[in-house]
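Notes for week 9. Today we move from apo structures to complexes. The key idea is that a small molecule is not decoration. When we ask for a structure prediction with zinc ion present, the ligand SMILES becomes part of the input, just like the chain. The input block below holds both the sequence and the ligand string. Read it once before you look at the output, and try to guess where the molecule might sit.
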Amino acid sequence: MNEIDRKASAAPVCPLCGKPTDHAFRPFCSKRCADVDLNRWLSGVYAVPVKEDDDEDGERPPDSEAGEPS
Ligand SMILES: [Zn+2]
């Protein structure tokens, strides 16, 4: 049982350069990488697809079951 090995390999790394992340700049390793990511956001590289909600007439919270909340 080498759980320590598994833990080590699961350590978070910077998505940009692959270095271990720094607590201060999570999920990045440094301010530099955080800035790079921010610039990508600002320049529209990360286009988030907008999903249209076709359930507009049914105003039901997802966690309300078919019961009466007194
Ligand atoms: Zn980095």
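The radius of gyration is 21 Å.
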